[in-house]
Design goal:
heterodimer, A: 193 residues, alpha/beta, Rossmann fold, B: alpha/beta, Elongation Factor Tu (Ef-tu), domain 3, 2 domains, six-stranded antiparallel beta barrel, four-stranded parallel sheet, globular, CobQ/CobB/MinD/ParA nucleotide binding domain-containing protein (chain A), P-loop_NTPase (chain A), MipZ (chain A)
Chain lengths: 193, 255
């Protein structure tokens, strides 16, 4: 399964999400590959710092794409964004042309990619979080899965552990669950007592 | 197992054996809970699969403490009809050593305690009985011997705390110990010191601080909170490598 991880701008945590998913899928016992196609090679550096190595003949191949690259033709396409860029990032996704393009693809029998939206670094302040959750639900209707990742000090320092929403996303990718919305207070299956 | 949901006063529940016959219970938190009855109540409630607590105006403190402890033990709990929820078991993988962060020994003064005044073993903290203990003593240098809020106090150099006591339909009120400056929010961590709940201060009258009841009761983690401003919340999340998961989704969707 090819998993493309992209975003329209730098700094949203695209590489962090890509490497986190690599690490979590490996911990779950899968063979995982990783290709850093970004301009700054942060993903590759993170992999090196954490002593993570891609597997040969992987079940999941994660591509950390260059910011602004059109996400297309992956089995799974993950768009990583954050506030205040969400509306802008979703403008094209939600456009009439994109809807028609999708319709045409399905008419000619082209397999549709699974599309995931990751909204990263959601504010810890209650009134902001409430508004941001509302906005995500309003705008992200065209995605198969929507993951709302709260601001997390671990991820900020590239300490890739302790983010349950991304653990849940790894479980979704591995076909263990199918949540449409993953909220910040999510609980991954492996942590349930 | 019966189908109906029994509705009982907390003090009556203590002398009953409802947990043997029912999976779900609704408890009216009456003001007659004294001595060690709060702990006894909590241990009884652990046996249920689902718990609803109904606070009276004067039993908010007990309701928050019991609800917080139940949720952290994985018992789906609701306060005042808000959505039932549990607290995710988000244990630290690397130990939290406050002594290293503030370059002083940090300890908690033993003595008075409540169901949520505790931290997981991955938070390296000592308990001492000596009030003259050298180093940062939670319960002396911080007003309450609650390790969760005390650790935030030690790390962010905060000496104020708000403890909730009075429930109201719209606003709930707590007493401020210490002073308020530019703090707009109240913060309380979970027992693993990995996540926090944040509520916004809505009203301050003297030493009485009020917040929206819905915001306070949707994700109860206990009764005591540290007042922080926006920047300090980020400093806390970065300093202790924590996150803030907000409220259970139903709380956003229904209100």
């Amino acid at each position: 399964m090819r998993i493309y991880v992209g975003g329209s701008k730098g700094g949203t945590g695209k590489s962090t999400v890509a490497v986190y998913l690599f690490k979590r899928l490996k911990e779950m016992g899968h063979r995982v590959g990783f290709r850093d196609l970004s301009q700054n090679l942060i993903g590759e550096a993170l992999m090196k710092a954490m002593k993570l190595t891609p597997d040969p003949d992987p079940e999941f191949e994660i591509y950390d794409l260059r910011s602004g690259t059109q996400l297309d033709h992956g089995d799974v396409e993950i768009l990583v964004t954050e506030f205040p860029y969400l509306s802008l990032d979703l403008e094209e996704t939600n456009s009439e042309e994109e809807r028609l393009r999708e319709e045409m693809r399905s008419q000619i029998g082209e397999t549709k990619s699974r599309r995931v939206l990751v909204v990263n670094k959601v504010s810890p302040v209650p009134e902001d979080m409430q508004e941001q959750v509302r906005k995500v639900r309003e705008l992200a209707w065209s995605f198969d899965h929507v993951v709302i990742v709260p601001f997390n000090g671990n991820l900020f320092y590239n300490n890739l552990e302790g983010e349950p929403t991304l653990d849940v996303l790894a479980e979704i990718l591995a076909g263990k669950r199918g949540d449409k919305f993953v909220y910040p207070l999510a609980e991954p299956m492996h942590r349930r007592p | 197992m019966g189908q109906e949901i029994p509705r009982v006063n907390a003090s009556e529940l203590l002398s009953s054996n409802l947990e043997e016959r029912f999976e779900t219970v609704e408890v009216l938190m009456d003001p007659n809970l004294g001595g060690d009855s709060l702990n006894r109540l909590m241990h009884k409630l652990f046996y249920f699969r689902k718990v609803t607590l109904r606070p009276s105006p004067s039993t908010l403190f007990h309701s928050l403490e019991v609800a917080g402890a139940l949720r952290e033990r994985g018992v789906p709990t609701s306060v005042d009809g808000l959505p039932h929820s549990t607290e995710p078991f988000l244990v630290r993988k690397t130990p939290l050593t406050p002594d290293r962060l503030i370059k002083r020994n940090v300890a908690v003064l033993t003595g008075k305690t409540h169901p949520t005044w505790n931290v997981d073993g991955m938070t390296a903290i000592s308990y001492v009985t000596d009030f003259d203990w050298e180093g940062y003593l939670i319960g002396r240098d911080f007003p309450l011997p609650d390790p969760r809020t005390g650790l935030i106090g030690a790390i962010l150099n905060k000496t104020s705390v708000v403890t909730f006591h009075t429930y109201g339909e719209k606003l709930s009120t707590g007493t401020l110990y210490g002073a308020l400056g530019d703090e707009e929010y109240l913060v309380r961590p979970n027992r693993w010191m990995t996540d926090v709940t944040v509520v916004k201060i809505r009203e301050v009258r003297g030493d009485q601080v009020s917040v929206l009841s819905r915001e306070l009761l949707c994700r109860p983690l206990g009764s005591s909170f540290v007042p922080l401003n926006r920047q300090e919340i980020f400093n806390l999340l970065l300093g202790l490598r924590m996150r803030c998961a907000g409220l259970p989704p139903d709380c956003y969707l229904k209100f």
